[in-house]
Amino acid sequence: MQDAIFSIVMPSFQQGAFIARSISSILSQSFRSFELIVMDGGSTDQTLDVLKHFARKDARIRWYSEPDEGQADAVNNGWQRATGTVLGWLNSDDIYYEEAFAGVARHFLKHPDADMVYGEGDHIDINDRFLARHPTEEWNGDRLRERVLVAQPSVFLHRRVLEKCGLLDARLHYCMDYEYWLRLSQANRMVHYIPRVLSGTRFHAGAKTIHKRLEMHAEVNDMLHRRLGKVPARWLLNYAFVAAGVDGEFRWSTPWRALRVLPCAIEASRRWNGSLPPATLLEWSQGISEKAVRAFERRQAG
């Protein structure tokens, strides 16, 4: 088979309920020069039956089922097997939207200096229904330190990025994508944003970022401390929201639970940064108090 232009790696483990839809979203692309490499971690559900079915029908699909060291390790192993010029990574419970490849291919053709191209992404439910738009923004290195600007399934990398910046950090299990975007930013790679929705990220009870949120935020802070030398105040507060049992949008059944956030934020600052600047403490206190009052007023209004 002639080398493909797009090489999509799909890490997989026990996602038999969704993987057929993920694969179908790739096979339905009008841009046909692609290969799909599924790296399964040894699933025992219906995943292997699904993979065998699709591989018999389409020679562009290759799959491997073997133990791995986690999602990042699986993606790395797939990328090392890839033949394409443009590399993507789609989790086995997510989907691409129609014409995603065509739009990205046109952009790379028009901008051959681009190292990474990314677009907008949706959050979807178990039935593919729209939940919300991912809070994507145009590329900005300073803003990237404060928040994740990028929807991971909507990212496409030129092969030369791996040669310059290496593979994913396989030590990470939750924020390997965010660490990689920071690495590209610090290396001054050419990153382009296109204002087009390319993918859907599925929210469901089995997603690790849903039921292991505290572990995820702790890993993010560990990573940021290693890469930046300190953890930005916003990420410390994000961790405190979860540690205090309060979500980041302040939709509380009891608004005064906000009072639990500040001690958690102070402890997080000491844990990762060793100290807490007075200005940061004042900012946190004012912000949490104001939002708690607004939440209480909304609750009273009924």
Helix content percent band? 40-55%
Instruction: Tell me how many strands there are.
Output: 9
| Cα shape | globular
Gyration radius from CA atoms, angstroms: 21 Å
**Low-confidence runs:** 249-253
Report the order of strands and helices: EHEHEHEEHEEHEHHEHHHHH
Give the CA-CA distance, first to last residue: 63 Å
Q: Which CATH architecture of the largest domain?
A: Alpha-Beta Complex
Total helical elements: 12
What CATH calls the topology of the largest domain is Spore Coat Polysaccharide Biosynthesis Protein SpsA, Chain A
Q: Strand fraction band? A: 15-25%
Structural class: alpha/beta
Description of the structure:
The structure is a single chain. The chain is an alpha/beta fold and 302 residues long. The protein has two domains: 6-202, Spore Coat Polysaccharide Biosynthesis Protein SpsA, Chain A (Alpha-Beta Complex); 212-301, no CATH class. Helix content is 44%, strand content 18%. The chain contains twelve helices and nine strands. The protein has helices at residues 19-27, 47-57, 71-81, 100-110, 141-146, 160-165, 176-186, 208-211, 213-228, 233-243, 261-273, 278-301; strands at residues 6-12, 34-40, 61-65, 86-89, 95-96, 116-124, 130-133, 155-158, 191-202. Strands 1, 2, 3, 4, 5, 6, 7, 8 and 9 form a nine-stranded mixed β-sheet that branches. Helix 2 (47-57) links the parallel strand 2 and strand 3 (61-65). It is globular.
